[in-house]
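Two proteins were folded this term; both appear here.
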Amino acid sequence: MPNSAQLENSSQGVASHSTQHVLTTADFLVRKGHYRMALAGLLPLLQGGSLDAGVLDRTASCYFQLGDTQTAISLVETLIEIRPDLTAVWGKLAAMKHSTGDKKGAIEGYHKVLKVSPNSALALSALNRVAPFKRNSAKAARLRTISKSKNLSSDERSAVFSALGQIEHSSNRPGAAFRFFAKAKAIKEGDYAPDAMDQLVDGQIQKFQHSSTPESQTDGPRVVFVVGMPRSGTTLVENILARHSSVGTIGESPALSKTLQVVRKHVEDTHRGADVWDWFGQLSEQEIFMFRRCYYEFVSQGQNVTHDVIVDKMPHNSLNLGLAHILLPDAKFVFMSRHPLDVGLSNFSTNFHTGNEFTCRLDWIGRMTCSIYRSIEDYKNKLPDQLRIQSYQELVTAPEPQIRALLKHTNLAWQDECLAPQDVVGAIRTASVEQVREKINTKALGKWEPYQEHLQPLVDALGGPEWIRNWQTMDEMSASC
C-alpha cells in the first residue's frame, strides 16, 4: 500500500500552511496508533471541501484502521476520480479490496498499476498473492528478470524473492522455493535476542501467580485474547469468534503491550523495581482500575468498540497473559497450537512487512517457539480455567465439535454462523488474508514435509525430534479437552 508521502509528492499544487500542519500532526498520531485522534483533525478539512490528495489519503487510512472499510474505499475511489494519474492510489485501493475479500477489485487495481509501471516489483508481488502466477507465465518471467536489477530497494527485493518462492512452491519445487525464501529473509535486518526472551519467561515462571482479584469486572467489554506463534491459526479463530452476534474484533491490537509499557514505567518511576516482572503483586486496586481503563483507551484509539465481547488477536500477547489476567479477571485466553514445523516453514516463507524479526533465521524461529510454549505451559498450570490450548489440526479436521468447545470456553452460546468464518465482514490485515477467506479446510496440514531436509536448523533449535514428539503428545491431549 502506498504511503502518504508518495501521494503527496504527486498531488497538484502545494498544501496550505495550515493544511500541512494538520497533515504533519496526523502522521505523528498515526505512527502512535491514535487513528481516532488523527481523524478528528482531518475531518474538518474534508468537511470544508478539501480535495487535497494528502488529506483524502490519510483520512482513508484512518477509517481503514478503525475498521470502516467502506468509507475508506469510498475516499480512495474519490481520490482516483480526482487524480486517476496517481498509480500509487490504485495500489492502495487494490490492497484495501484484497483485505475485504474482493479479489476481482484487487486484481483490477494491481493491473492498473502495472499498465503504467509494468516492472513494479511491489505490484507484481502483490498481484501474485491474489492471483498466483504459473511458473512458465510471462509475469513470473518478469519477476525473475526484475530480481536481477540493482535498482530495487530492500523491500522490493525481498517481496520479489518471496513471490518467486511462492511460485516455485506451487510448482512442487521445494528446493528452489526454499532458496528464494532464504534470499528474501537474508535481506531483512533481523534483530532478535533469544537469551533475553528466555529471561523474560524465567521471570514469568518465578514471579507470576494466579491473582486473588474478584472474578468479574463490569466497566468495559469482556475480552477474549487469541494468541500463539504467528501463522499458527490465530486469524482463523478470531474470525470464528467474530461471526458470533455478540462479538467484535479489534484485530492485531497493540493495546495490551502498550499498557504493559505504561505499567512498567509507573513501577520504575515509583521506585518499586526495574525488572520487567516487578510490577506483579505491587499494584493496588485503584492502580489496576486505572491501567484497565488505560487498556480500553488504547483499544478505542485503534478500533470502534460496540460489542459486549471483543477479540484481541495478537500472537505475541502469549507472553503478556499475566498482565491481562490481573487487569481483566474475567478475560479468556485461547492459545493456538499448530505443528511447529508447519509454523516454522510458514514464518520463514512469509514476507512480513514489519515486526517478527525472529523469522529471519530458522534457529531463531525454533528458539522463539520453545520460549512461547514454555510460557504457555506455565500459564496453563496457573490459569487452567481461563486458558484453552486449541489444536489447529483438530480444529480444521473436526470443526463443529472444536468450535462448540471453543464457544463454551469463551462463555458464548452456540451460533451456526461460527462454522463459516470465511464470511466474516470487514478487512483482514494479516498475512492470512487468502487462507481465511476460504472455508475451513485441511490444506495447510503437513506443508513442511517436502522441506524436511531444509528445516534441520529449526529442528535442532527446537531440541530435536524428541521435542516435536512431546509437542504432538501435548497437542493430542489438548484436542480431547
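Next, the second protein.
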Amino acid sequence: MTSPARVSLADVTPPIALGPLDGRYRSAVAPLVDHLSEAALNRERVHVEVEWLIHLASQHVVPGAPDLSAAERQYLRDVVASFGPDEVAELAEIERTTVHDVKAVEYFLKRRLADAPAVLGPDTVLPSVGELVHFACTSEDINNLSYALMVRGAVREVWAPAAAALVDEVAAMARESAATPMLALTHGQPATPTTLGKELAVLAHRLRRQLRRIDGDEFLGKLNGATGTYGAHVVAVPGADWPEVSRTFVEHLGLTWNPLTTQIESHDWQAELYADMARFNRVLHNLATDVWSYISRGVFIQTPVAGATGSSTMPHKVNPIRFENAEANLEMSCALLDTLAATLVTSRLQRDLTDSTTQRNIGPAFGHSLLAIDNVRRGLRALSVDAGLLARELDQNWEVLGEPVQSAMRAAAVAGVTGMQNPYERLKDLTRGRRLTAEDMRGFIAGLGLPDDVADRLAALEPGSYTGLAEQLVGYLDA
C-alpha cells in the first residue's frame, strides 16, 4: 500500500518549533528570549562594541581619537536600545557574506557610524572613528563579555526572581501549616511525628540557601586580545596602560575583571554558577517528589481545574501533572547544566571552539528550570491540606510514642529511679510489628513506676501532640 504524500512541516510558515520550549511551553519561558537567544547574543555584542568604542574615546587611549559629544554617545547607545527584528535580519544578511558572526557585528556598527550625519548633522565625528570599532579585539573579547552580560541578565532579571517567588510561596505554606501535626515516615515507615509546616520549611530553607549562593556568584570578563597578552594593543599604542584600560572597561560593564586568560575567558565562573543552579534544581526536584508523595498519601488534596481531564479513561482522577512535569524538566535542566559546567572549563591550549556551540545551549538549560519553577508554583496553588486524614493517621500509630517513653525512662534511670533498666528493649518488645491503642500505651506507662510528674506528662501525650519544637522551628525561615 502506497501512503499519500504528506505536507512537509519543515516548510510551514511561520516556522514550527523543533523543541518544546519554543513551542508548547513558549509562554512560560519567553522572558529568557531577551537574554539567551541568538538575537540577544548579537544585541549584547553590539552593546559591547559600542561601549568599547566610547571607552577608548573617552579615556583618550588611542592618540588622535576625537572626543565624543553627549549626543554622539547617545546615538551609539540608541543603536543598542533600538536593536530589533529589522536589525536581526540585517545582521543575518551581513553574516551571509562574512561567514563570521562577530565580524558581521563590526560591519553592522560601521554602517551606523556612516549613517550618523543624517541624524546628528554633517559635523559629527562618528564616521571618522570606524577603526575604533573592534580595536585590537579578538572575537572572544566581545563574546565572553556578551555572554557574561546575557547570563547575568537572565539570572537576575528572570530566573532568580521566579525562583525566589517560588521559595517565598513554599515558606508561606510552611508558616500556614506550622502547627499542623503529621505522621512522619522514615524509610517509608511510621516515625516520630512532625508538622507539615516544618517539613515544608526544611525545603524552603534548602532552596533559599542555594539562592544565596547564586546571588554571590561572580560574572567574569576579559578584554586582552588573541592570546591574552595584549600583543596587538601594545604594538598599536605602546604608551597605554592596557591592563588598566581593560580592567576599567570590564568593570564599567558591571562585571568582574579576569586578568589572566588565554584567548578565551576560562568560563570557570559559568561552571560555578551552573553547579549552583543545578543544585537548586535538585532540591526543587526533592520538593516535587515529596509533594507528589503527599498527594498520593492524601495529605494534600488537589483542586480540580474546571473542564480539565485528569485521565483519558478514568474520570475520577486528578493527576499531579504539575509536579511530574517539573521533575522531568528539572532533570533536563540539570543534564544541560552539568554538561555546561563540565565542558566549559576545558579549552585546548590557547583556544578551541567547543565552547561556542556549548554556550548556545545555556538558554535551554535555563528554560527547562524556569518551566519547572512555573509548574511547581502552579501546582502548589492548587493544593489544600486534609487535616482530618493527618489526624487519623496519627491516631492509628500510637506506637510512635515508644521513643519518648523510653527516653523518659533513660532520664529517670540517670536520676536514680529504680526499675528503669533496659528501656529500649522493653519498648521494642511492646511496639515492634504491632499496632497499639491509646489504652495499650497508657497502661504500659502506668506500670513503669515513673515519678508522678513524669508519668502524668507521658500519659497526657498523644501522637498528634508529640511534635517537639517543630512549630517553633518554622520561625527560622525568618531569621
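Residues 31-132 form a domain with the Fumarase C; Chain B, domain 1 fold (CATH 1.10.275.10). The chain has a mean pLDDT of 94. These notes refer to the second protein only.
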